[in-house]
Amino acid sequence: MTALRLDGVTLRYGDSDTAPALADVSLAIDAGRITWLFGSLGAGCSSLLLVSAGLAPRHTGGTCAGAVRALGADPHDAAGRQALAGKIGYVTPTPGVQLSGVAATVSEEVAFAPANLGWPIERIREAVPDALARLGIGHLSGRNPAALSGGELQRVVIAAMLVLAPGLWLLDEPASALDRAGRSTLAGVLRAEADRGAAVVIASEDAAAMAAVADRLIVLDQGRVALDGAPRDLLADDVLWRHAAGSTPIANLARSAAALCDVVPRSLAPPYPLTVDEGVARWS
Amino acid sequence: MTPARGLAQQAHPFTLFAITGAVALLAFILPPPGGPVALYAAVVVLALAAGVGRAAARALLVCLPLWILLFLLLAVFGTGPRSDLGVITVSRSGLDAALAQGARLGAVATASLALFASFDPSRFLDAVAARGWSFHAAYLLVATLQAAPRFRQRAAMILEAQRARGLRFGGNPVRRLRGLAPLTTPLVLGMLSEVDDRAMALETRGLDARVARTPLEPPADRIADRLIRRGLPLLVVAALAWRLFG
Amino acid sequence: MSPRLLALVPSAVAINLAIGFVVNQLGLPVYLDTVGTVLTSALAGPVAGVAVGLLSQSVRSLYEGFIWLPFGAVQVLIALLAVLAAARGGFRSLPRSIVWGLLVGLAAGLLSAAISFFVFKGVTATGVTAVTILLTRLGLTTGQAVTVSSIGTDLVDKTLVFALVGGILRALPARVAGRYDWALRALAR
User: Which residue is closest to C179 within chain A, CA to CA?
Assistant: First the structure.
């Protein structure tokens, strides 16, 4: 089932003379899968998430042509936004600005959206501890969000979206403030969300982490879809470097080593190894 | 803000606002100077009984410089028949006016600082939601109270950052004025860039959903609270009638 | 209210309060407690500007006691005049900002004087009241002294506020200004 569809979407932040942030982007994203958006700085990954959520150009300024359908509704339309209330989980890399600004405790912070949506109190009382536990922050429930570290805050913000059980996740570098344990927890949560039937779309530069969890890789380059396919196939291929900043650290290492050779040995030729284990197996 | 213990914490949030509002009105309705003085005394006793005595002390500190200025402006330098007050003479009517005004300020300051000491943002938001009133207005008040310390901290950081860059803010008034733009401009521009992100976050968290918000832990609206809130307007009207026709 | 205004208003009020801290650190004898109000009025119009003004006075009153709440009327006046200034291109250049600042200072000073005299018997903030007392000793009536000291303070204060806000508005990137309906009008872009 298609959870998100973009048809011929072109987004410009300035006037018609400025280069578009997204240029004639058309794609369909299925429910129940984790789709990874990857590209160098300015490629358009964040913009694609904003347009998909109906937040750009309304909040960012600019113009947008084309059509967007998220979970069967138009997020750029007022009626569509009301229909989608609480169904899109949008997370950015800066947790501090995503707080409600009125919660005295972490529990209240996570309960903020369900309360706004008029959920029955019994449902809220059940859903909030569950969301906190899944992110491993049940012990923070009584703490003031203003007193938390960046990593703790990011988990709280994700929990505040998780509590809604959204049908569509749009995450922009959600692990930027997380430590290794936090990233592992997040990967587990997002996998479970996809298994539940949600569509999960993540913009991330962390190729090593995403290679292990993503079902599909879409590479953006200057606002256009440059590559679209299985993550492992694309990450191990030379073509990726023409459009993106690189691949996993091991693949980058292999490619850099190959560039130093006059004649590239088979052990350094694509498909590149993506993990340490694959590198050891290839080169030992 | 830590809610104070005792009666003030137990009271419904709207009751505290009603009491503060009634005190402010009565301060100007009751015949001076006895009325405001009696009101001030009553408010101080009420604050002590409700467990917010510190607010009364804080109000005293706030009002003290104003009392001194009132005494100087209206009594010492006032016009009209004068009385001896030890080493100085004061205008009799001016002294009465200073006493009345000082008591008014004291009563209102004590009541409102007691309100602030007892103010629990979460209870207030839940009380508004339970009544089905505009959550946005309540949100603005509570969000502002939470934002204020954060921005002050940011202003302090910008000040240190600019000092570290070699900007000097001392010296003559013109030089100090020049320090305004490098300090205020980054603060304001930072605020505006943050507004976009916050607006998007609030929208994705349903703040503009057209449904009634669920109160998480609505404060109990006891009989005593309802009696006080209904009785206070009657008290104010009675005082006004007495002042006008009594 | 839209999510944008719900995000903007609390931050603008916090700006009003934080700049008071800055002014204190610089040791300047002004308040500059309406920068957020004027800026919001110029960016988002009268409803938002008035909301910032009233909320600023209410929050300050919570911290210091409701005694200063009547001066919320001055904040409302400044917000409305700032909208007028924005509509008439008052922030397009520094000289225009200064002229509008002087006009708003005069209007705000007159209203402040009326509130100070009738509600507070001429005794408000320490510095202004000290000037009032000095002027009465020089022969002015209390009403005259309150008027002169209020207007004097507000002329300087509001001129600085308008000059500052004008500078900030002109420094705004077009992309940021474009998100606010009233901003482009204020800057005549």
Answer: A61
pTM: 0.87
Residue spans per domain, chain B = 7-119+219-245, 133-204
Give the count of domains, chain C. 1
Nearest-CA neighbor of A103 among B144, C181, B107, B121?
B121
Give me the residue label for tokens 């309705």: B29
Quote the distance between the C-alpha of residue A135 and its chain's center: 17
Question: Which pairs from B74-81 meet CB under 8 Å and 24+ separation?
Answer: B74/B98, B74/B101, B74/C121, B74/C122, B74/C123, B77/C133, B77/C136, B77/C137
At B42, which amino acid appears?
A
Chain B residues with a Cβ under 8 Å from any Cβ in chain A: 120-122, 125, 129, 135, 139, 142-143, 146-147, 150, 194, 196-207, 209-216
Chain B CB contacts of C15 below 8 Å: 151, 187-188, 191
Domain coverage including residue C128? 3-187
ipTM over 0.85 threshold = yes
Around Cβ B242, how many Cβ atoms within 10 Å?
Answer: 13
The SS3 call for residue B37 is helix
Q: Chain C neighbours among B 128-187 (CB < 8 Å)?
A: 136, 139-141, 143-148, 150-152, 154-156, 159, 169-170, 173, 176-177, 179-181, 183-185, 187
- Give the domain CATH number at C112: 1.10.1760
pLDDT in tens, C71-92: 899 999 999 999 999 999 899 9
CB-based contact A101 B122, cutoff 8 Å:
no
pLDDT under 50: residue ranges of chain B: 4
